[in-house]
Amino acid sequence: MKIIAKRPEALTSAAFTYCPGCLHGVAHRLIAESMDELGITQDCIGVCPVGCSVFGYRFFDCDFVSAAHGRAPAVATGIVRSRPESLVFTYQGDGDLAAIGTAEIIHAANRGENITVFFINNAIYGMTGGQMAPTTLAGMKATTSPYGRDTEDVGEPIKVCELLDSLAAPVFIERVSLLDVPGIIGAKKAVKKALQNNRDKKGFSFVEMISTCPTNWGKDAVESVQWAKENMLPVFPIGQIRDKGAEK
Amino acid sequence: MSKMLMKGNEALGEAALRAGCRHYFGYPITPQSELIEYMAKMLPKCDGTFLQAESEVAAINMIYGAASSGIRCFTSSSSPGISLKMEGVSYCAGAELPMVFVNVVRGGPGLGDIQPAQSDYFQATKGGGHGDYRLIVLAPASVQESVDMMYKSFDLADKYRNPVLILTDGLIGQMMEPTDFPPMKTDAEISKLRGQHKSWCLRPRSKDKVEEKHVIKAFEIDPVNLEKNVLSLYEKYARIEQDEVDWEEYGVVEDNQILFVGYGTSGRIAKTVVDMYKEQGVSVGLIRPKTLWPFPYEAIKKAAKKVKKVVVVELSMGQMVEDVRLAVNGAVDVDFYGRTGGMVFTPEEIKEFADKKLAEVK
After folding, report:
1. Helices B8-18 and B33-42, interaxial angle, to 10°?
2. Contact B144, B187 (CB under 8 A)
3. Which stretches of chain B sit within 8 Å of chain A by CB?
4. Cβ–Cβ gap A78/B217 under 8 Å
């Protein structure tokens, strides 16, 4: 029998806890495939956030630590400063990284910590039930913006890649899309590059993945992907923002 | 070795280095800044990690990460900063991480002031962060004791996989005293200390992944399991209460008329009060708790048996006094004398108060 598709070795057999149509599974797979291909799983230490991926430690076959809301980059800093031989990565959502954890992500990036940050942006708080996120689009409805996000009142959605691009230290910043096959192929390249940088001790790498939340958007999986392409990508354009590693 | 003349805050840092601590994460705040500055100066000289974090919140979460990897690490702050750290302290306690942190207490509430105080006793011993947990809390009364307690705190943290808090104050932190230091741990000893945590800590695994994966978390979604986890924490806390309670007795004898209770700076001032009574030929004693948790309930209960008054002195509006009342359990009146907001009492003030209280009994 010829195996034509299988679970990456870097994923455990634990069943995902994500909703049907959610793209966390795709993001997990891309990270795990890259870990397999680079042969680094045994050296990886993951930091999972508070949010839908709070159970991330169940799914990856490497050591893991569960951080407080927003603090993953600080926790990762503590680990990498005491275990410089390991590859430390965080996996964070938009509420975690761009609201409560804004200080932690900016300063870890500014110090150029040798960590990799995977940032899942689906413009909403998933786990707590669909509240407005720092990346919620203008006019977009959420349970805490029931009349649509009023940017006059609460500001425009935050573009984290562009924000981090103002800092000197980060070596790699890229925004990718999980919304279709070309997007996923591009995402895989960025994820692998970020982990490669980590292995080669190049410094701070950041990959933002544009994703969906069918459950809290009130749409099915196909509608969600279509909606995200039409509405999120114009605000959060995909593309490589920085690759200092390649310049050297 | 001859004694060294050193400031309390710096002595804490030197003791941590000698205990084999090579990782410090902190944020500046008065009156503990000499400590963070000492670590900034010394750690690069011994291949250690000094990192000034973006906030106290970040610093304690760096500690959470560093302690997860099984190394000796500590952070320090003063009252308002400690409030910020409480999130991470709760996580460290829940995840059973060995780590040490220092509170050089100043006047509160709020921003308060920068003078010495003891008004963080409740926060230190009754919670502070969320959830069912306990910290081991050590309260030094001199620079020498700061050194001895700091050195020992890492052993306690390792032994019980539990956070240890050194509760000192702006007075002990800022004063200089001649001090003996314990020997510097060798690299071999430090490496051995780290080795003791290899069964649970975060680390790179061998290529074949024969070793189990390790997960560090203070999170358990199933209430049945979370209750089990907390019960197991409390079994550990019972062992700590059994074995680690520590206090000093000064002039405690059968015919004491007054039993004073005070910790840290207050305990030290109360010693002078005991001496003043002794000169007058009046028998009084002092119990100075050295561990605030576990608290020396039994020692206080025993010493208070035949006295006419118990007088508790604190640089606060009265926080530890509640534990003393629990210890005495109504057997004798417990009176309280305190100054707060960064004001420090004199021995004369305390004696005047105690004289009056004693006269009420007679």
Report:
1. 40
2. no
3. 23, 25, 49, 51, 53-55, 57-59, 61-69, 71, 73, 87-88, 91, 95, 202-207, 209, 213-219
4. no
Cross-chain Cβ contact B69/A77 below 8 Å: no
Burial class (CB in 10 A: 0-12, 13-18, 19+), B266: buried
The whole-angstrom distance between B113's CA and the closest CA on chain A is: 26
Cross-chain CB nearest to A65 (options B58, B202, B209): B202
Q: Give the distance from residue A128's alpha carbon to the nearest chain B alpha carbon, in angstroms.
A: 14
Band (pLDDT 50/70/90 cuts) for residue A1 is confident
With CB atoms and an 8 Å threshold, state whether A82 touches B69: yes
Residue closest to A245 by CA, chosen among A199, A176, A185: A199
CA distance linking residue A149 with residue A156, whole number of Å: 9
Give the H or E element holding residue A107.
helix A102-111
Which of A70, A72, A27 lies closest to A208, judged by CA?
Answer: A27
**Hey, of A81, A102, A105, A167, which one would you mutate to test binding to chain B, going by the most B CBs within 10 A of its CB?**
A81
Positive or negative: CA dihedral B312, B314, B318, B321: negative
Q: Reduced to 3 states, what is the DSSP secondary structure of residue A57?
A: helix
Question: What's the CA gap between B81 and B70, in Å, rounded?
Answer: 25
- CA triplet B170, B175, B179: central angle to 5 degrees? 125
Rounded to 5°, the CA angle A47-A50-A56 comes to 50
The pLDDT assigned to B207 comes to 74
Using a CB-CB cut-off of 8 Å, the residues of chain B touching A67 are: 61, 64
Round to whole Å and give the CA distance between B66 and A75.
7
Distance (Å, whole) CA A245 – CA A200: 10
Give yes or no for a contact between A64 and A47, defined as CB atoms under 8 angstroms apart. yes
CA distances (Å), A7 to each of A11, A13, A185, B14, B310, in order?
7, 8, 17, 51, 69
Average pLDDT taken over every residue of chain A: 97
List the pLDDT tens digit at each of the 362 positions of chain B.
689 999 999 999 999 999 999 999 999 999 999 999 999 999 999 999 999 999 999 999 999 999 999 999 999 999 999 999 999 999 999 999 999 999 999 999 999 999 999 999 999 999 899 999 999 999 999 999 999 999 999 999 999 999 999 999 999 999 999 999 999 999 999 999 999 999 999 999 877 767 899 999 999 999 999 999 999 999 999 999 999 999 999 999 999 999 999 999 999 999 999 999 999 999 999 999 999 999 999 999 999 999 999 999 999 999 999 999 999 999 999 999 999 999 999 999 999 999 999 999 87
Q: How far apart are CA B150 and CA B53, in angstroms?
A: 22
Residue A80 Cα, gap to closest chain B Cα (Å): 8
> Which residue out of A38, A43, A63 would a mutagenesis test of the B interface target, given it has the greatest number of B Cβ atoms within 10 Å?
A63
How many residues does this entry show for chain B? 362
User: Crossing angle of helices A102-111/B56-68, nearest 10°?
Assistant: 70
In chain A, what percentage of residues exceed pLDDT 90?
Answer: 98
Q: Chain A partners of B215 at a C-beta cutoff of 8 Å? A: 57, 63-66
Q: Does A103 contact B66 at a Cβ distance shorter than 8 Å?
A: no
CA quadruple A23, A25, A30, A31: dihedral positive or negative?
positive
